[in-house]
Every structure is written in C-alpha cells, then in structure tokens.
Write a structure and sequence with these properties.
Order of helices and strands: HHHEHEHEEHEHEHHE
Low-confidence stretches: none
Structural class: alpha/beta
Number of strands: 7
Strand content: 15-25%
Distance between the termini: 41 Å
Strand order of the largest sheet: 3-2-1-4-5-7-6
Mean pLDDT: 88
C-alpha cells in the first residue's frame, strides 16, 4: 500500500485538531512496536547521560514529532533539530508540540537528510527511526549523520531487517509500504558500514521477533489498509477493542526478549 497519502490526510486532520495531540501520541506509542524498543533504548541512554545535560539532538525524519516529544521529556535541557523532507508533517508536529514542552527548544527544518550538513560536528545524539529504508542514497545519509556527531555522540537507528522487514515474506515480493527504497538491511553489513565511517557499535540487535511479527500483523498490516476508507471505521473500532490487548501483550514480550532473528533492527553507534 501507499502509506504517504494516509499520512498526508492525518497531517491535515491534526492541523485542525491540535487539542487531540496527546491522544494521538499515545496511540502511536502503543500501536507501533518500534516505539517500545526505542523507549527502552532511550531510557538506557538516559542512565548514562544525565537528564540535566544540555544535549544537542537531531531527529532525522521527524514525521509527526513523536521523538521530539520523548527526547525533550527525558532531557529537559536538550535542544533538538527536527528535520523532515515533508513540510506538511513538520507543520503538524510543530503545531502539536509547541503548545507545551517544545516551545523554544526545537528548530523545525525541511531538508533532505542525504544533502544536509551542519558547519561542525556538534551533535550529542541523532535519532534515525524508520528513515534509512526510504532514502535512495542511504550511504550519503549515513556519512552526513556520522560527520555531525561530536566525539562521544551517538547515532540510534531503527530500520527493517532483510529477514522479512517491510512485510516481505518471499524473494521478489513487493514490500507492504510502497515508498520504501529498499526492503531491509542485513545487521552485520549495516554495522560494518557504520564502522567504516569511524563509529563504534554499542548495541546491535534484532527487533520484531515472533511476538512482534504477529503483533504487527494484528495491529498494523491487516487493519491499516482499511483506514483509507472512512466507511470501514465502524468495524475497525470494535476490531481494535478486541485486538489491542493481545497486540500490546505481544509488544511487551517482544521488547523484553532477545531475538536471534527478527524483521527489525536496532543499532546504537558512538563517535569515538
């Protein structure tokens, strides 16, 4: 399916109803398993980086600003650069977030990550969440991010793996999201590419093991195409009333288990 038109309509809807922002972010946090893994990763980082530290952060491909919100809650003194190629998403995120914590602490920039640069290596943390698979020139994007990290700065990546990421279940199959430039990454190869850019790997693991794969089907793959048609909503709401508790339990297990294989990857790399 094409995901962008659905997100475009959602952005327009949120522009008119910013007061629903809190509920919207709660729904994103619950429904998408990557957020469960990233919450744990960011909390682990917070244990090493004091909350009072004035971090400089880049949210690369910020979308609706979910991680702007989370970073600014974890590090109240942080300043964050929220970057996205889609101006409509940034407008929605800014309207949702600048009513409270992000006011004066976030800079909203429309730019292509593979062509973006800062004048110096000044960033303490870069988040790249489900973004690399959308970028044709991902090597340029990785070089850009590595170059912007100060010594000791970290890059946190979440992306589909080559073991069925993007919903690919057999060779040659088209992915679930039509806008992906590639269907997934090999964990060892991605880590090697980051090492070649001078980064040290701190965490490299699979996400979306068996519990997560079933949760993704239950909460995203099966129902999401039906959200494109408003007349389907009358049965989607009772569907989620039944499916959500099961999906959340599967998310809980997936975020706490170590997976030998999985359809997602989470990598944390550090600039020496």
């Amino acid at each position: 399916m094409r995901y962008e038109p659905l997100k475009d309509r959602l952005a327009e809807w949120l522009q008119r109803r910013p007061w629903l922002g809190g509920l919207f972010y709660i729904a994103l946090e619950l429904l998408f398993l990557r957020n469960w893994h990233l919450r744990r990763a960011l909390r682990s980082l917070r244990a090493r980086i004091p909350p009072e530290q004035a971090l400089w952060v880049l949210d690369a491909g910020t979308g609706f600003g979910l991680y702007v919100r989370r970073v600014l809650r974890l590090w109240p003194q942080a300043r964050i650069l929220a970057l996205d190629l889609n101006e409509r998403y940034l407008r929605s995120a800014r309207r949702l977030l600048e009513r409270n914590a992000a006011r004066g602490r976030a800079l909203w920039v429309v730019a292509d990550l593979s062509r973006f640069a800062l004048p110096s290596a000044c960033l303490d943390l870069i988040l790249c969440v489900d973004v690399l698979e959308h970028i044709p020139d991902d090597e340029a994007a990785l070089r850009t991010m590595a170059a912007m990290l100060r010594p000791g700065g970290r890059l946190l990546i979440s992306t589909p793996s080559d073991q069925g990421g993007s919903g690919v279940e057999r060779p040659g199959q088209e992915g679930f999201i039509a806008e992906h430039a590639r269907q997934g990454y090999n964990l060892a190869e991605l880590c090697e590419r980051l090492r070649n850019l001078g980064l040290r790997i701190e965490v490299a693991r699979y996400t979306y093991g068996l519990p997560g794969q079933w949760a993704w089907r239950l909460l995203i793959r099966w129902p999401l195409p039906h959200w494109e048609r408003p007349w389907n909503w009358f049965w989607l709401l009772p569907y989620y009333a039944l499916a959500l508790p099961i999906g959340l339990l599967l998310h809980w297990f997936d975020a706490r288990l170590r997976h030998e294989r999985g359809t997602g990857l989470l990598v944390l790399a550090c600039s020496p």
